[in-house]
Amino acid sequence: MSVATLPTGYVGHGGWRGIQFWRLLPLIPRNILLALLHAYRSTVSHAYGDVCRYYPTCSAYAVGAVQQHGAVIGGARAFWRILRCHPWASGGVDDVPPGRRFRFELTPHGFVVPLRKD
Fold this sequence. Notes:
It contains four helices and four strands. Strand 1, helix 4 (58-84) and strand 2 (92-93) form a beta-alpha-beta unit. Helix 2 (28-42) packs across helix 4. The longest helix has 27 residues, at 58-84. Helices cover 43% and strands 8% of the residues. It is found in: Cell membrane. It comes from Microbacterium horticulturae. This is Putative membrane protein insertion efficiency factor.
């Protein structure tokens, strides 16, 4: 799996069209952090290759954590995961626990948008 490729659970078919701006406001910090993570994954992380002991990689885990839990809690979960990723870690599959109150859609690029009321 390529470093820049997100696991299938971290992308969706949602879109920005037809969503009122005021419904996007609470998601701005989350999506800004996701944009930064995508930039990191396409530059720095891409240069290192697949060196993480865990699946998904630490940067992909950070994307999933921010998507599911928001900028603050998701960022804290990602930070904790990075602290656990060291040469003596056993590694393995470590999926992001789903957010109990996650009521959003994901775009094909992994950004979070409100559910459409269609």
